[in-house]
C-alpha cells in the first residue's frame, strides 16, 4: 500500500484542462455536430443563406459551406477538424463542401448511438472504413463516362453547381459562359486557375461576359496614348522603364549649372535609349510589372504605344499564357519573337474606373470571365457560384466520370451498403449499417430544406432504388421522386468520392480521441512596483 502521507504528484500544470473517456468523446462529437448543423440548412436548391458580419463590420451573404465556416472563426479543436474537411473539399474540387461537412457530422451522430450501446470506438472505426471502401467501389461502378465533347452534359453540370446559389436566376447565361470558357482553353495541362474571374459593380448579371484574354485592373499610363490598339504586339516586361538608383550610396558633386543640365540630359538619353529598344522590337503595347518614368511615358505616347505599369506578377503570368509572350527582365533581350499577340488591347471605362482589356487572343491558354452585378454582395456570391461551376466541370473532365445528384447517388450507396452489411458478422456490421444511415442525411436534408416530409420522400426513394432505378432522386420543386439524370441534375464523381473519403477519415480520427488536454491561458505578467498605476 502507498504511504498515506505521500504528497500527490502533479504531472500537468495546475491550470491545464483535461477531459478524458466518454466525456471527451461526447464533447468532441457535440462540437462537430454543431458545425454540421450550422451549414446544414444551406444544402440544396432550396437551401437558405447566412449573413456573416466580421469584426470590421463587413457583411458576407452566402450559402457556400467553406466560406461560412472560415468566416465563423471556430476555436474548438474537434470543430476545426470538421472545417478542415470543407477546406480539403474546396481545394480538391471547389464544390460539395456542405455535403462533406453534413455527412461527417452525421457519421459522428450515428457513432454516438453505437457508443451508448458500449461498442468500442475502434470497432466503429473499422466498420466505417470498410463501408467507405465499399462505397468507393460502388461509386466507380455506377458512374457514367464523360469527355470534353459532351457539351450538353458539361452545361448541366455547371447549371447543377449554380442552382440554389445567388447565380440561379441567371444560370442559363452563366452556364453558357462557363462551358465556352472551358472548351476554349481545355487541354491536358488545364487547371482551374486558367479561367480567371474578375468582378465589376454595375449593370446586371446578364451582362457578364467571357473575354478571350485577360482583364487587368490598370489604366493606360498617359492620356496621349491610344484608347484602342488592334493587332496588338505586347511586350511583357519585368524591368522598370526608368533610371534606377545605384545599388551603393553615391554622391554627385555639381560645381557648375551646366553640369546639372548635362546630368539631366544623360538621364533623358538613357530613357530614350530604353524606349528605342521597345520601338525596335515593333511592340505597340507594353505591360510592365515595374514603374515607367514620366518622360518614358511621353516618348511612348508620341510613338502611339499603349502602356500599363505596376501589373501584378499573377497577371503577368496569365498574360504570358493568354498571348504566348515571354516575360523579360532585361531590355537588351527584347525582340519581336518575344512579343505576345492579341486581337485588341483597349482602355475600358466601367463606372468611374478604368481597366485594360486584352482580348481576342488567337489561342489563349487563359481566359477571363468578367462578372457584373448591382452590388458588391451580389457580385461576390455570383463569383463563388461560378468558381463552384468551374471546379465541378474541371473535376468531371479530369476524372472522366459523373453521377446524378438530387440525393440519388447517396440513396443508391445506402442501399448497396446495407446489403454489404448483411454479409458481415460481428459488431462491425452495426457500424456499416450506421454508415448507410448516415448517407441518408443528404436526401433527408434536401427534403427538409424544401419544406417536404423527409420520411415520405425517403420511403419513396428507397422503393424506387429497390426497383433498380439508380438515379431516382428528389425533385425539391414538386416534392416527387424523379430520374435525376434525365432531369439534368449531374455532378462530378470526384465530389462524392472526396466527400466520403475525407468525412470518414475525420470521423474516425475524432472517434479515436479519448483524452483532450488543453493548456491554460498564460498568466498575465506582474508589473514591477509602481508600474501598475502608470499603465
Explain this structure.
The protein has 535 residues and is of the alpha+beta class. It folds into three domains: 244 residues, GROEL, domain 1; 91 residues, GROEL, domain 2 (2-Layer Sandwich), CATH 3.30.260; 151 residues, GroEL, CATH 3.50.7.10. 47% of the residues lie in helices and 16% in strands. It is built from 17 helices and 19 strands. Strands 7, 8, 9, 10, 11, 12 and 13 form a seven-stranded mixed sheet that branches. A three-stranded antiparallel sheet has the order 4-15-18. The protein has a three-stranded mixed sheet with strand order 5-14-6, covered by helices on one side. The longest helix is centred in the middle third of the chain and has 24 residues.
Gist of the model:
The chain has 17 helices and 19 strands.
Tell me about the largest β-sheet: 7 strands, mixed
Given helix and strand content, the structural type is alpha+beta
Can you give the helix content as a percent range? Answer: 40-55%
- Overall, the morphology is elongated
Number of DSSP helical runs: 17
Mean pLDDT: 81
Report the CATH C-level class of the largest domain: Mainly Alpha
What's the β-strand tally?
19
State the domain count: 3
Low-confidence stretches: 522-535
- How far the N terminus sits from the C terminus, by CA atoms, comes to 54 Å
CATH level-four homologous superfamily name of the largest domain = GroEL-like equatorial domain
CATH architecture annotation of the largest domain: Orthogonal Bundle
Radius of gyration: 30 Å
Oligomeric status of the shown chains? Answer: single chain
Q: Could you tell me the strand content as a percent range?
A: 15-25%
The CATH topology annotation of the largest domain reads as GROEL, domain 1
Amino acid at each position: 500500500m502507498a504511504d498515506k502521507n505521500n504528497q500527490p504528484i502533479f504531472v500537468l500544470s495546475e491550470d491545464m484542462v483535461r477531459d478524458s473517456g466518454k466525456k471527451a468523446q461526447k464533447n468532441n462529437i457535440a462540437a462537430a455536430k454543431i458545425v454540421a448543423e450550422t451549414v446544414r440548412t444551406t444544402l440544396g436548391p432550396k437551401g437558405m443563406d447566412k449573413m456573416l458580419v466580421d469584426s470590421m463590420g463587413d457583411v458576407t451573404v452566402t450559402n457556400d459551406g467553406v466560406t461560412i465556416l472560415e468566416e465563423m472563426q471556430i476555436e474548438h479543436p474537434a470543430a476545426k477538424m470538421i472545417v478542415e474537411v470543407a477546406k480539403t473539399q474546396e481545394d480538391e474540387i471547389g464544390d460539395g463542401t456542405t455535403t462533406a461537412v453534413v455527412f461527417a457530422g452525421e457519421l459522428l451522430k450515428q457513432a454516438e448511438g453505437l457508443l451508448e450501446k458500449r461498442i468500442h470506438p475502434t470497432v466503429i472505426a473499422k466498420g466505417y472504413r470498410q463501408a467507405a471502401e465499399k462505397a468507393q467501389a460502388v461509386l466507380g461502378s455506377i458512374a457514367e463516362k464523360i469527355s470534353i465533347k459532351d457539351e450538353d452534359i458539361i452545361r448541366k453540370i455547371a447549371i447543377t453547381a449554380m442552382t440554389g446559389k445567388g447565380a440561379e436566376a441567371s444560370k442559363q447565361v452563366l452556364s453558357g459562359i462557363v462551358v465556352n470558357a472551358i472548351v476554349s482553353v481545355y487541354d491536358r495541362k488545364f487547371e482551374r486557375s486558367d479561367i480567371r474571374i474578375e468582378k465589376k459593380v454595375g449593370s446586371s448579371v446578364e451582362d457578364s461576359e467571357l473575354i478571350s484574354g485577360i482583364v487587368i485592373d490598370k489604366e493606360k499610363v498617359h492620356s496621349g496614348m491610344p484608347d484602342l490598339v488592334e493587332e496588338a504586339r505586347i511586350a511583357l516586361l519585368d524591368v522598370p522603364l526608368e533610371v534606377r538608383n545605384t545599388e551603393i550610396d553615391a554622391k554627385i558633386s555639381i560645381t557648375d549649372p551646366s553640369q546639372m543640365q548635362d546630368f539631366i540630359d544623360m538621364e533623358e538619353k538613357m530613357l530614350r535609349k530604353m524606349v528605342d529598344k521597345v520601338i525596335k522590337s515593333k511592340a505597340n503595347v507594353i505591360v510592365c510589372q515595374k514603374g515607367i518614368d514620366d518622360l518614358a511615358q511621353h516618348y511612348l505616347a508620341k510613338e502611339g504605344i499603349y502602356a500599363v505599369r505596376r501589373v501584378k506578377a499573377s497577371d503577368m503570368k496569365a498574360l504570358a499564357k493568354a498571348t504566348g509572350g515571354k516575360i523579360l527582365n532585361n531590355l537588351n533581350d527584347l525582340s519581336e519573337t518575344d512579343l505576345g499577340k492579341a486581337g485588341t488591347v483597349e482602355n475600358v471605362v466601367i463606372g468611374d474606373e478604368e481597366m485594360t482589356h486584352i482580348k481576342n487572343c488567337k489561342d489563349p491558354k487563359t481566359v477571363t470571365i468578367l462578372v457584373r452585378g448591382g452590388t458588391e454582395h451580389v457580385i461576390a456570391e455570383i463569383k463563388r457560384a461560378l468558381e463552384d461551376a468551374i471546379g465541378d466541370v474541371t473535376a468531371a473532365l479530369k476524372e472522366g466520370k459523373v453521377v446524378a445528384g438530387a440525393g440519388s447517388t447517396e440513396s443508391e450507396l445506402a442501399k448497396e451498403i446495407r446489403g454489404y452489411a448483411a454479409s458481415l458478422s460481428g459488431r462491425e456490421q452495426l457500424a456499416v449499417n450506421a454508415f448507410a444511415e448516415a448517407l441518408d442525411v443528404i436526401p433527408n436534408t434536401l427534403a427538409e430544406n424544401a419544406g417536404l416530409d423527409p420520411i415520405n420522400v425517403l420511403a419513396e426513394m428507397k422503393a424506387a432504388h429497390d426497383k433498380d432505378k439508380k438515379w431516382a432522386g428528389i425533385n425539391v420543386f414538386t416534392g416527387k421522386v424523379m430520374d435525376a439524370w434525365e432531369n439534368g441534375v449531374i455532378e462530378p464523381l470526384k465530389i462524392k468520392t472526396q466527400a466520403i473519403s475525407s468525412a470518414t477519415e475525420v470521423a474516425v480520427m475524432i472517434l479515436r480521441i479519448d483524452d483532450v488536454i488543453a493548456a491554460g491561458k498564460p498568466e498575465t505578467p506582474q508589473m514591477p512596483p509602481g508600474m501598475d498605476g502608470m499603465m
